[in-house]
Amino acid sequence: MTERKRWDLTFETWIERQIRVAQDRGDFDDLPGYGKPIPDHGDDELWWVKSYLAREGLSTEALLPPELQLRREIERLPDTVGSAPSEKVVREIVSDLNRRIADCLRFPSGLPVPIHKVDTEEMVEVWRVERARRREEARTALNSTRPRLETESETGVARRRWIFRWFRRRNRPVVREG
Predict the structure, then answer these.
(1) Domain total for the chain?
(2) Mean pLDDT of 37-46
(3) Residue 125 sits in which domain range?
(4) Which parts of the sequence belong to the DnaJ homologue subfamily C member 28 conserved domain (predicted)?
(5) DSSP per residue over 66-126, as a string?
(6) Does 46 map to a domain?
(7) pLDDT tens, 117-132?
């Protein structure tokens, strides 16, 4: 805790003395940016917002109004539901988005942005198509990595086997019971 200011000192002298004592103790030696020049941000008025977002690892999308954030989320929705593990998860994602859209439509922020609810069944269909496409890609990737074996029909072996079976059946003696 700092000592109280004496009555005969001005505030400026008292503060300067506290800063000098702290410097002598080394309180300012391990501060980030110590010994570096102050960064020049030019004429950018939002430099502090941009540096905060970069430091916190946030995107600039957080600065947008809620309506525009929802529009961007609707645009990215097919990619989002395409990676969902089940239809139930897809329905939960879409219902959550529709709930937030309804809240935004009930209490607009003043920005007239056309926004609409998302059709759940349409997104489920998008998910099914995407899942089928991914399965097909995985299947073709698996087949392309396996060594290709010739099938019997390509070598003519199957045709010859059929002919041999036909001759064997034809030449078999008929056994009659009775």
Answers:
(1) 1
(2) 82
(3) 64-144
(4) 14-80
(5) HHHHHHHHHHHHHHHHHT-SSHHHHHHHHHHHHHHHHHHHHS--S------PPPHHHHHHH
(6) no
(7) 999 999 999 999 999 9
